[in-house]
Design goal:
137 residues; alpha+beta; four-stranded antiparallel beta sheet; 7 helices; 4 strands; 19% strand; globular; binds adenosine-5'-triphosphate; binds magnesium ion
Length: 137
């Protein structure tokens, strides 16, 4: 059974649409293996997005991710990684297909509602960043 990591970002948590977003995952046949609401520290956000450290938007990305609580979730199911990416829609919500999470809940490329692992390999790294093995059903 494949697993992937989702983060509901501070903008979507502030909008009180956590349940609506988690329902999209369940309605698509994914299961919630683990979930937690938490406030990321600056060090957490910098480490999590380390692959983007050299990008011009890295500072803003880190500031945004620590601007309020997030909900980190492990999703499980057949083709969980790509299913989650399809449900999310394009990084820029203005380019996201109608009916996707970003089209429906996101405002801008910075405040884009959700993160999702972009490969099965990265999913394993990102899940281990947030969850202990005993927390994963
Ligand atoms: P995420 O990794 O959050 O799931 P993604 O995989 O769709 O999003 P990435 O290319 O990994 O997109 O970028 C990580 C995050 O950095 C994006 O979600 C977005 O918030 C921010 N970002 C990406 N490109 C830009 C940009 N050109 N300007 C501002 N912010 C950006
Ligand atoms: Mg990404």
């Amino acid at each position: 059974m494949e697993q992937t990591l989702s983060i509901i970002k501070p903008d979507a948590v502030a909008k009180n649409v956590v349940g609506k977003i988690l329902s999209r995952f369940e309605d698509a046949g994914l299961r919630i293996a683990a979930t937690r609401k938490m406030q990321l520290s600056r060090a957490d956000a910098e480490a999590f997005y380390a692959v983007h450290a050299e990008r011009p938007f890295f500072g803003e990305l880190v500031e945004f991710m620590i601007s309020g609580p997030v909900v980190v979730t492990v999703l499980e199911g057949t083709d969980a990684m790509i299913k989650n990416r399809d449900l999310m829609g394009a990084t820029n919500p203005k380019e996201a297909e109608a009916g996707t999470i970003r089209a429906d809940f996101a405002e801008s490329i910075d405040a884009n509602a959700v993160h999702g692992s972009d490969s099965v390999e990265n999913a394993a790294i990102e899940i281990a960043f947030f969850f202990a093995q005993k927390e994963l059903s």
